[in-house]
Amino acid sequence: MQFSTTSSRVDCPYCGEAFELIIDPVEPEQAYVEDCFVCCQPIHLQVTVHESGEVEIIARSENDC
């Protein structure tokens, strides 16, 4: 079995710090919460992997959800 991942940069909606996310492209629609590595605030992430392989990430603060 072969596993493939891709990475994308995301900006924290609280502090603006950029960080790298590791994405599993097998799941085309993903939604989860991950804490910012700098300010520790919860970031609500919505990840879409399009058929072309393009990854779209929407990062929102708790107040924007």
Describe the structure concisely.
This protein is 0% helix and 51% strand. The protein is mostly beta strands and 65 residues long. The chain has one domain.
Mind explaining what this structure looks like?
By secondary structure, this protein is mainly β. It has one domain (6-64). The protein is 0% helix and 51% strand. It has no helices and five strands. It has strands at 6-11, 18-23, 29-35, 42-49, 55-60. The strands form two sheets. A three-stranded antiparallel β-sheet has the order 3-4-5, with no helix packed on it. The chain is globular. The mean pLDDT is 91.
The residue ranges in which pLDDT falls below 50 over 5 or more consecutive positions are: none
Q: In whole angstroms, how far apart are the ends?
A: 37 Å
Number of strands: 5
Mean pLDDT: 91
Radius of gyration, in Å, reads 12 Å
Q: What class do helices, strands and sheet pairing give? A: mainly beta
Helices and strands, in order, run as: EEEEE
Give the total of domains: 1
> Could you describe the largest sheet, including whether it forms a barrel?
3 strands, antiparallel
Shape: globular
Number of helices: 0
- Please list the strands of the largest sheet in the order they lie side by side: 3-4-5
Report the helical percentage.
under 10%
Question: Could you tell me the strand content as a percent range?
Answer: over 45%
